[in-house]
Specification:
67 residues; mainly beta; two-stranded antiparallel sheet; 1 helix
């Protein structure tokens, strides 16, 4: 019996977490982290403009799937 090993086609992307400021009613600003993703690699992964996605999050992990 032959055992085949398949290589994962998953690619690794390293992106930056930005800071985003939001203005509050008291004219003060508060900052939160922001993640921006764009590129052909999203298209190659099966995501298209207008798709709906589900985002699951837990400590130190975010999983994004199409609906």
């Amino acid at each position: 019996m032959e055992v085949r090993k398949y290589k994962s086609k998953a690619k690794i992307r390293i992106i930056k977490v930005y800071e985003r400021d939001f203005k509050r009613a008291s004219f003060r600003y508060i900052s939160f982290p922001e993640i921006r993703m764009a590129g052909k690699w999203l298209q190659d992964s099966g995501f298209r403009t207008g798709d709906q996605i589900v985002i699951k999050h837990s400590k130190k992990r975010i999983v994004i799937n199409k609906v």
